Amino acid sequence: MSRLRLHPERHLVQRIGWLRAAVLGANDGIVSTASLIVGVAAAASMREDVLVAGAAGLVAGAMSMAAGEYVSVSSQSDAEQADLARERKELSDHAELEREELAQIYVGRGVEPDLARQVAGQLMQKDALNAHARDELGLSDIVAARPVQAAFASAVTFASGAALPLVAALIAPRAAIVPVVSAAALAFLALLGAVGARAGGAPVFRATVRVTFWGALALALTAGVGKMFGLAV
Fold first, then answer.
1. Helices in the chain by DSSP H: which ranges?
2. What's the pTM?
3. How far is residue 141's CA from residue 123's CA, in Å, rounded to a whole number?
4. 3-class state of residue 141 by DSSP
5. 71: burial class by Cβ within 10 Å (0-12, 13-18, 19+)?
6. Residue-wise pLDDT tens digits, 201-223
7. What is the pLDDT of residues 18-66, one digit of tens each?
8. What letter does residue 6 receive in the DSSP assignment?
9. Exposure of 203 by Cβ count < 10 A (0-12 exposed, 13-18 middle, 19+ buried)?
């Protein structure tokens, strides 16, 4: 007699919380810092000015990303907690109505009404709030908002991404900072797009082209601005 063996599955959605913050942070770090360096270098500034601008952009950007991500995700977390508190009160005041509401959700998904009521009753007997949070509100531990984790991931990945064009500016000859940093930034962006797509299960080529295109556009615009102000001075 064969026995059914259960095996654990790792779904890509489990990565969505940290993956979004990590990819966004690294992408912003590369694009903003490389663009800043290219813009300052195109204005015919000294190497020291370029490096100071890049380092300042790294620190300021990392802190800005961390603060922004923390505030944003905290707002999401507050909204989730408010919904849970409201649902907890409804369960306390109108348990029968909430059971029927849950049953109707299952009926809408194709379950027979009698079976849906039976399932709703069993689930609510075990953990009523969790059942309604998952099936009525769409909340679960997998996609729950985690402000500290998101802020830390954004800050670290922004700094890591920003460090790459900064190192390229440090080792490049002064006259070649603009092309070297631009080429390095586009290569890093292409790699980031491929890695992020692979980690998230998305098409690699499309993600790579998308992130590289916007990076090239940002570099071109800031180089043009730097060149314009450099000629004006």
1. 16-42, 47-93, 95-108, 113-135, 147-171, 177-200, 204-232
2. 0.67
3. 17
4. coil
5. exposed
6. 677 888 888 888 988 898 888 88
7. 566 677 788 889 999 999 999 888 887 788 888 999 999 999 999 988 8
8. P
9. exposed
| Rounded Cα distance, 68 and 53, in Å | 22
Indicate the Cα dihedral angle 164, 170, 176, 177, nearest 10°.
Answer: 60
149 closest CA partner among 17, 58, 27: 17
Name which of 29, 40, 25, 66 is nearest 164 in CA terms.
29
Torsion angle of alpha carbons 136, 140, 146, 150, nearest 10°?
-100
Other CB atoms within a 10 A radius of the CB of residue 53 amount to: 19
Ordered DSSP codes for 167-221: HHHHHS-GGGHHHHHHHHHHHHHHHHHHHHHHHHT--HHHHHHHHHHHHHHHHHH
Cβ–Cβ < 8 Å for 25, 157: yes
Q: Which residues contact 147 (CB under 8 A, 6 or more apart)?
A: 69, 70, 73, 74, 77
Tokens of 166: 């900064």
pLDDT tens, position by position, 85-123: 887 887 788 878 878 877 888 887 887 888 888 878 787
